[in-house]
Predict the 3D structure of the following.
Amino acid sequence: MTDLLRIEIADDSLFGPENLPYGVFAPAAGDFRAGVRIGDSVVDLAVLLDDSTFAQPTLNAFLAQGPGRWREVRDRVRDGVTGEITAAAVHSVDSVRLKLPVTIGDYVDFYASIDHATNLGRLLRPDGEPLLPNWRHLPVGYHGRSGTVVVSGTEIARPTGQRRTPSGTPDFGPTKRLDIEAELGFVIGVGSELGERIPTEEFAEHVFGVALVNDWSARDIQGWEYQPLGPFLGKSFATSMAAWVTPLAALREARVPLPGQDPEPLPYLRERESWGLDLDLAVRWNGELVATPPYRRMYWSPAQMLAHLTVNGASTRPGDLYASGTISGPERDQRGSFMELSWGGSESVAVNGEKRTFLEDGDEVVITATAPGADGRRIGLGEVGGRILPAR
């Protein structure tokens, strides 16, 4: 006889049935497989739905099945977790191991926050215009390194490289200006063929959901190498991604208009419906809250980012990841990088009574986010965290 139970969900849980983020987990003794989080539990989808698609150690095959299938599974899962469910499908979230939920073929990082771009422009070009001439005309981005995207909780070794000295020549050693970038990542579900463009109105037909991202940055290495071709070793050593992917379907209540774009974008970047999102992030440095970046102020939407990413015919595949770039607001405590919080290292940040600017060995950063959900409740996007190890 099959044992049945009801999953207990606290009234104030950020992971109620209106959320249902997807991840890949393994029980204490078992193989990795797909699950959804509900309250403080993880539900094994292969067991719940009797579907071998979810017995795989990645979500890619499910994502490739498209929006109709996503809706069907979400409806079935919601019905399953709110009634009696077989006990064999339910695991405590504290008892499982988590891994990257998708196999990432390509990773692109954007620069979509006008507050962040303005702050960095003022730091890097104090006597010039903060925004470069192209910034208000296209979502600026670069191709990152998908092989160094790691799941939340992975420890990060301090990177080593060339750094500019006061004389203008380089030396070599561990970065002295290790930073974070609080970002939102977007996970491709249905890919596109080489030569095909994805218009803004087809965003939700291709993107499955979102996950928090921390794009760790070595600012001194980056500052020496980035001209003329942009970020390289200062970014490619590690990018952390949350273990949970929140489906777009869970963010209906978070949809808001963009703050406004001037000048009007070129036709391929114009939106028929706005994909601004009202998300509140929180950045904790060694447990202390140091910043609360608001995603709702982002200048470029994820639909515009995807349209620009593919307008030249670049293809996409299930599991591909692109991220927003640092999320910042106009206030000091809304800055999503320590480069901004410390104003290039010239202003200290109070962290547990210590005066800090950039990350030291042993430091831990955890980024969380919430969004409006159904019935006035909030939903959580999980967390993305990591601790800094000494350079190898």
Observations:
- The domain at 4-99 is CATH 2.30.30.230 (SH3 type barrels.).
